[in-house]
Design brief:
Layout (H helix, E strand, L loop, with lengths): L4 H36 L3 H21 L4 H21 L1
Helix pairs in contact: 1-2, 2-3
Length: 90
């Protein structure tokens, strides 16, 4: 247990930030999952509609440090490639 006032405060802040980061990571994963499910159903219009929101959440997660920048770029690249394949098939 922390003995100093500043250490107790730092513990409280860490707990709050951990909870915020957990919510943001969950929101990111849910959005990517929703996008992938739309593509698995071969629903081109739904996937097109979800793309800007998904990219926005991915970019913000990278900005906040939830994921690294290259990971965000990889997610976006792979989602874009899958969407192009889906539109070519449609």
């Amino acid at each position: 247990m922390a003995n100093h006032v500043s250490a107790v405060k730092a513990t409280r802040i860490t707990e709050r930030r951990t909870e915020v980061n957990r919510m943001r990571r969950t929101r990111l994963r849910h959005q990517i999952r929703t996008m992938r499910r739309a593509m698995d159903k071969k629903d081109h219009t739904e996937a097109e509609k979800l793309l800007p929101a998904t990219f926005s959440i991915v970019d913000r997660a990278a900005k906040w440090g939830i994921i690294k920048k290259n990971t965000a770029a990889r997610y976006k690249s792979r989602l874009t490639l899958r969407l192009k394949k889906l539109s070519a098939a449609a």
